[in-house]
Amino acid sequence: MAKLKSKWVCQSCGYETAGYLGKCPECGGWGTFTEEVQSSLKPQNISPQGILNDVQPSLISDIHIGEEVRVSTNISEFDRILGGGLVQGSIVLIAGDPGIGKSTILLQTSGELAKKGQKILYVTAEESAGQLKLRANRLGVNENNLYIYPQTNLESIREQIDKIQPDTVVVDSIQAIYSQTITSSSGSVSQIRECCNILMQIAKTKNITMLIIGHVTKDGNIAGPKVLEHMVDTVISFEGDKYKSYRILRSMKNRFGNTAEVGIFEMSANGLVEVLNPNQLFLNERSQEAIPGSAIIVTNEGTRPLLVEIQALVGATPYPSPRRVSNGIDYSRLLQILAVLEKRVGLNLSKQDVYVNVMGGIEVDEPSADLGIALAIATCARDVVVDPQTVIIGEIGLSGEIHPVNNLEKRLNEASVSGFKKAIIPYANRDVQHEKIKTVPVKRLMDAISACISPQ
Ligand code: TYD
Ligand code: MG
């Protein structure tokens, strides 16, 4: 009997070696290698290159592009993150934690597309057709040209695509399907890479839109090789607090539109409902009286500014080394802000625990949130309150200077719609004025602290 060869593959970057390694030389990850058994049979040549081999180079001036066909999903928040609708023949990867609503949004989208006359093949590789039907009943999806196909074998899926000739295929999920040409188990790096390759080839040669669901690992990355994200046209991540009802869809990569665009939904008893005024949602949990350690920032998510509350808690530590906990902001960013507060403002935090939380389960990675985070910490440490009518916008440099931000006018407009009266802004943005909001330009972190403290 032919001996089966094995190789070790890094599950986070796809690096391959003949034997086990503790640390990946490519991505530096620890304990990321798993063994994959290969068949000694040569796999058939089914790479996209194999099919596209007869394509010849052509002069750029001779290339004629067909009209880009965009199909609206009838879900305006979803259309927005896609850049105005689904581009026919594109591949969209939707990633998120289990139970966040990936299958729900794609079943709703399938229903809407089917209503428009598109033929949809929904491949359910994790749930049975019955389970899917139950969800469809809740969502009120019962269209004629929506085919449900419980299948994990990619070759069978391919056969059905040839037979049904759908306009859109949903694959739920890429980790659960496998190709017979690869012997390693489904969900492994080589299976995911191969399956995605084949799906991409089908999408591009047959002009079929592919909506692919992907799982994320415990640390929040999309499970499988990084190449998966490179291969697809659009990557959308599903965020949000699973225990609360709202969900945030964010486009991380989009070959056909803006990235960093967000769409906000609420999970209701009948599926995901668009939230058209998200600021109310994020701010309505705020307590009416001002409390120390709370600051409102205006982050710019794609083309839409969002008002978000940052809360900080600072207190004497019972531990030998103080704790720093960040929820919704990057941990090293928090450490940097704390270092600036200690060195440039003279706030002694070396014996204090610091907890920072972005309310609403949203992730804020824009640097313009720095100043709001710093003020939440500083006001909590000094037990004073930030004026509740004030929003805070600015990036902090290492010497405590405040850097300018983009799109300030839009941010101020959004703040004024939500009833705010004052904004602390970077000095370099001082030319930006707003008729309903009093702007206070600040050069340094120290000035911002004195400017925000209530009453003023
Ligand atoms: P689901 O789409 O199955 O999540 P995923 O595919 O990302 O794992 O959604 C799961 C959760 O959503 C589940 O806990 C039930 C809830 N839900 C509702 O609250 N209302 C609904 O109408 C539906 C379909 C699901
Ligand atoms: Mg699911």
Total individual domains = 3
Taken as a percent bin, the fraction of beta residues is: 25-35%
Largest sheet, spatial ordering of strands: 8-7-9-10-6-11-12-13-14
Helical proportion?
25-40%
CATH architecture of the largest domain: 3-Layer(aba) Sandwich
**CATH superfamily placement of the largest domain:** P-loop containing nucleotide triphosphate hydrolases
Task: List how many beta strands DSSP finds.
Answer: 23
Assembly state (oligomeric): single chain
The rounded Rg comes to 25 Å
**Which hetero ligands occur in this complex?**
thymidine-5'-diphosphate, magnesium ion
State the end-to-end CA separation: 84 Å
Biggest beta-sheet profile: 9 strands, mixed
**Low-pLDDT sequence parts:** 39-43, 45-50
Describe this structure in words.
The protein folds into three domains: 40 residues; 208 residues, P-loop containing nucleotide triphosphate hydrolases (Rossmann fold); 172 residues, Ribosomal Protein S5, domain 2 (2-Layer Sandwich). Helices cover 27% and strands 26% of the residues. Strand 13 and strand 14 form a beta hairpin. Strands 8-7-9-10-6-11-12-13-14 form a nine-stranded mixed beta sheet, sandwiched between helices. It has 456 residues and is of the alpha/beta class. About 2% of the residues have low confidence. The chain contains twelve helices and 23 strands. Helix 9 crosses helix 10 and helix 10 crosses helix 12. The protein starts with a strand and ends with a helix. 41% of the residues are buried. Bound molecules: thymidine-5'-diphosphate and magnesium ion. The site of magnesium ion (MG) has 4 residues, from helix 3.
